Amino acid sequence: MEVFEKKTEIVEGLLSCTSCTGIYPIILSIPILVEDLSSFFSIRTKLGGYLLLNVKNSKVKSLIKKSLQNIKKVGDDTTDLEKNWTKIYKKSRYSIFEKKIKNIVQKLPKCSLVLEHGCSIGTMSDIMAKHHGIVFGIDKSFFALLEAKKHKVKNMDFFLADSLSGPFGSMKFDLVVSLNILELVEPLKFLKIVGIQSKRFLLLSDPYDYDGRKNSVKTRLDEKTLRANIRQMGFKLILGTGKPSFISWKLSVNSRLELMYKVDLVLAAIEQTRVN
């Protein structure tokens, strides 16, 4: 690790992998753990420009500039969309769904190490950090993670990464959480990853909104197939989540538009795990 600016935590630096020779920047205290920065920026050129303006060290600036220059094909830029969803999640706090997650988290025995996939602005990670040990959140939205960092909780940190790339390698977590992202990643591949990552508990939810996404996934899971796959992975469904649920999750898009989802929630434990 090369550290170029540090306050209470590393603000700017470079992480270098001795195994794969990959180089990963830390910008505004967010480690960007993506394997191919050029591919990442190919649909986020505005974000690349934003980062160039906000980095100070010449090495980090050179890495971002080189990655932008090496983009092979520019796609539709998602930077503004990711900014907008960050605002939507900020306005949509304190939902029935959030209260349900809080209730579930409080019932679990204390977990030393927690990982949340698709953590967005860190609302749920913050809830888990109040009841458990160290919490790591990962997301692909830089602006959502900037918002998440504002929680400033000592036992919680965030990383920009693709859930399907396995940024934590063979590391195991007591609790792995994924809320409402099954229509954003290939579900079967994702389930295999989180099944390996979890050594005690797995908390999943989704509204199965595949048709509402422009670039949806190839394999679609519903309530029954999700539960069947989780059981095949060696987990048992606990705390009454064996049957489908319909939990209200309201998102305030703007003053004239609200989205109301009915979310299904699954809490699973490795077969030998007991919950009082």
Provide the number of structural domains: 2
Q: What is the name of the CATH topology of the largest domain?
A: Rossmann fold
Low-confidence segments: none
How would you describe the oligomerization state of the chains in this entry? single chain
Number of strands: 12
Number of helices: 9
Report strand %.
25-35%
Q: How do the helices and strands follow one another from N- to C-terminus?
A: EEEEHHHHHEHEHEEHEHEEE
> What gyration radius follows from the Cα positions, in whole Å?
19 Å
So, the CATH homologous superfamily of the largest domain?
Vaccinia Virus protein VP39
Terminal-residue CA separation: 43 Å
Described by strand count, sense and barrel closure, the largest sheet is: 8 strands, mixed
CATH architecture of the largest domain: 3-Layer(aba) Sandwich
What is the level 1 CATH name of the largest domain? Alpha Beta
